[in-house]
Amino acid sequence: VVSTQSTGLGPILFLLYIEAVQDIVEPYGLRIKLYADDSQLYVSLVPTDSTGWSEAKANIEECLAKVKRWMVRQWLKCNEAKTEFIMLGKRSSQSKVSFNPVINFGETEIVPCECSGTDGKTLGILLDHNLDMERQ
User: What's the pTM value of the predicted model, to 2 decimals?
Assistant: First the structure.
């Protein structure tokens, strides 16, 4: 899950602009969820498939760069520093990850969040890596 937020627009005005983002994301094979001024990209991977991760990483990075270019053309601010990346899955799957999960977004290197404090929060729900809801 990759999340970008804090564009500086109110939710209604933001929605007028953001519909084009879905068209940008679609060719990269990513799924997107939009919530007011927050957007989340989703991709499914097999934890032992480093080739799949390499392809997904390239798609995510290209997609984020294209979305940022679109936002700049629309006079919107994209805050890379507030972008989060979280890997979700069963504890047994998480232990099998065979790749270095890092995403580059502009000058920012994004590593999976630790899911502590307010990191990994979506729509008021505190997510954790294992999806066991222990943080609620």
Answer: 0.76
